[in-house]
């Protein structure tokens, strides 16, 4: 449950899927975006979770693809959530860049651009049986999803 140290190419792919759209977003923030009122405690959870997730997803080889078993379904489910995450980014970029568009639900999933990667990382942690990624996903989830929900409430 602690994990085997070694590079995870699956982790690198996940981080690229996560960071590339976020880098593009940071250059094209929603026209009405205001982060000045973000809860500092949630922000602290988010930052700690980001560092812990980024590190643990790369340094444990347990996330790499193994021979297929029933356990592989966790990896497949996790990757499907990341694909949905990318679809949500495409949906956002192909519409008006507003906060309302940024935070709108997707197939009943609230704040999908925050919740989908958190769920994907949690499932990847389960697949790899690495408690560090599971705990990190919970920490970032508290902060990141919490902040997104606050923004959503503020615009309604």
Automatic annotation (TrEMBL):
Transmembrane segments: 6-24, 71-90, 102-124, 130-149
Keywords recorded for this protein, A-Z: Membrane, Transmembrane, Transmembrane helix
Protein name: Uncharacterized protein
Species this protein is from: Neobacillus massiliamazoniensis
């Amino acid at each position: 449950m602690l994990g085997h140290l070694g590079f995870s190419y699956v982790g690198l792919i996940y981080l690229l899927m996560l960071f590339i759209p976020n880098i593009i977003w940071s250059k094209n923030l929603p026209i009405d975006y205001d982060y000045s009122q973000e809860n500092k405690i949630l922000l602290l959870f988010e930052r700690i979770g980001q560092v812990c997730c980024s590190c643990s997803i790369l340094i444990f080889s347990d996330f790499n693809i193994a021979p297929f078993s029933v356990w592989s379904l966790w990896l497949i489910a996790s990757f499907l959530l990341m694909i949905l995450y990318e679809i949500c980014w495409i949906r956002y970029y192909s519409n008006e860049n507003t906060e309302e568009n940024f935070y709108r639900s997707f197939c009943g999933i609230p704040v999908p651009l925050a919740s989908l990667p958190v769920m994907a990382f949690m499932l990847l942690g389960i697949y790899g049986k690495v408690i560090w990624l599971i705990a990190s996903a919970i920490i970032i989830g508290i902060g990141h999803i919490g902040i997104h929900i606050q923004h959503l409430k503020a615009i309604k």
